[in-house]
Amino acid sequence: MIVGIIPARGGSKRIPRKNIRPFCGKPILAWSLEAAAATGVFDALYVSTDDEEIAAVAEAHGAEAPFRRPKELADDFAPTLPVVAHAVRWVEENRGPVEFACCLYPTAPFIRPSDLAAGLQALQADPTLHYAFSATTFAFPIFRALKRNLDGTVGMFWPENEFVRSQDLPEAWHDAGQFYWGRGKAFQERRGFFSSRARPVVLPRRLVQDIDTEEDWEAAELLFQLSRKSHGDVGGRA
User: Fold this and answer.
1) pTM of the shown model
2) Where are the chain's structural domains?
3) What is the three-state SS of 116-162?
4) pLDDT tens sequence across 133-170
5) pLDDT (tens digit, 9 = 90+) per residue, 118-134?
6) Please, what's the b/e burial string for 196-233 (b: 16 or more CB within 10 A of its CB; e: otherwise)?
7) According to the CATH classification, is domain 2-136+173-230 in 3.40.50.720?
């Protein structure tokens, strides 16, 4: 079985009710669900939540919400991996074996069906992989990063790179925070996402935007609208 897991708890603090807040015309988690449905690869999509309203909204947009997440996995400190492991275990105990699972974040409206499909294809093509996840490059060479000292002055994390040209420094990547494909067994065993057993699905930086503050939200809506107008590649399209 190939399933999607959407972790969407109800207690978001910085942006209250973030996971179902309207984003460019529909609840933000609906964009992730529509992109997943557009791939045609999922046998089912499940939302992992502790919140009845979120469950109802998710079900209205094509997901199932047959269980509720336990309190110990729904606080501000619960990491993603045990949440997905709990959901995969529920599916296996109640619906059948999970070969591949994809954790889709509910606040990732820039997810494209083509990128989701590429993640699954990477796992299917290489049986040694545990995961495939969305990633992109840093906009500036991190090896010339600065730190602010306690007295207000600045220093470099890597002073030896002060006079090295940017183009001569290694390219650095970061997790794009959209999705994590994994084998059901890897999630159940809670294996780490980032290792030699994982492969990135490379995204353009214009499709990557954290949404943790009101300012982030406003910027994401503007970027989303611009991307739809200029490229037509977000919003559930393949």
Assistant:
1) 0.92
2) 2-136+173-230
3) HHHHHHHHHHCCCCCEEEEEEECCCCHHHCEEECCCCCEEECCHHHC
4) 999 999 999 999 999 999 999 999 999 999 999 999 99
5) 999 999 999 999 999 99
6) ebbbbbebeeebbbebeeeeebeebbebbeebeeeeeb
7) no
